[in-house]
Amino acid sequence: MTGQKADFEPITGDGRPVAEQPVYTRGQLALRNGQDRDEIWVGFRGLIYDVSRSRLWKRGNHYEHWAGQDLTRELEKDAPHTANVFDRFPVIGRLA
């Protein structure tokens, strides 16, 4: 979707536009895996989503997918659902 704007702005955890969300490194994302801290975050297509409230991610994993990492390649390759599955979760940052 290069050069095209999305039909909507993703929801964010603090109400700021996505472009103003903080940037996190992969190392910082890795700490939010549901094991080391209470936060459960996943990266997808350059954005970081907070999935902490999802009962499906409570243990830091959902089927064969683990929180605290960029799941773009995994989900685009073999997920049984579409990318809009993250639409219900707030964007809390951008992946560096």
Residue share in helices? 10-25%
Task: Assign the CATH superfamily of one domain.
Answer: Cytochrome b5-like heme/steroid binding domain
Oligomer: single chain
Major β-sheet profile: 4 strands, mixed
- Total helices: the number is 2
Strand content: 15-25%
For this structure, the CATH topology of one domain is Flavocytochrome B2, Chain A, domain 1
Distance between the termini: 19 Å
Shape: globular
Record the strand order, biggest sheet.
1-6-3-2
InterPro entries: Cyt_B5-like_heme/steroid-bd, Cyt_B5-like_heme/steroid_sf
Pfam families: Cyt-b5
What does this structure look like?
Residues 1-20 are annotated as: Disordered. Pfam families: Cyt-b5. Residues 24-96 form the Cytochrome b5 heme-binding domain. The protein is of the alpha+beta class. It has a domain at 18-78: Flavocytochrome B2, Chain A, domain 1 (Roll). Helices cover 12% and strands 20% of the residues. The protein is built from two helices and six strands, in the order E-H-E-E-E-E-H-E. The chain has helices at residues 26-30, 72-78; strands at residues 23-24, 41-44, 47-50, 61-62, 65-66, 91-95. The strands form two sheets. Strands 1-6-3-2 form a four-stranded mixed sheet. Strands 4-5 form a two-stranded antiparallel sheet. A hairpin with a 2-residue loop joins strand 2 and strand 3. It is globular. 19% of the residues are buried.
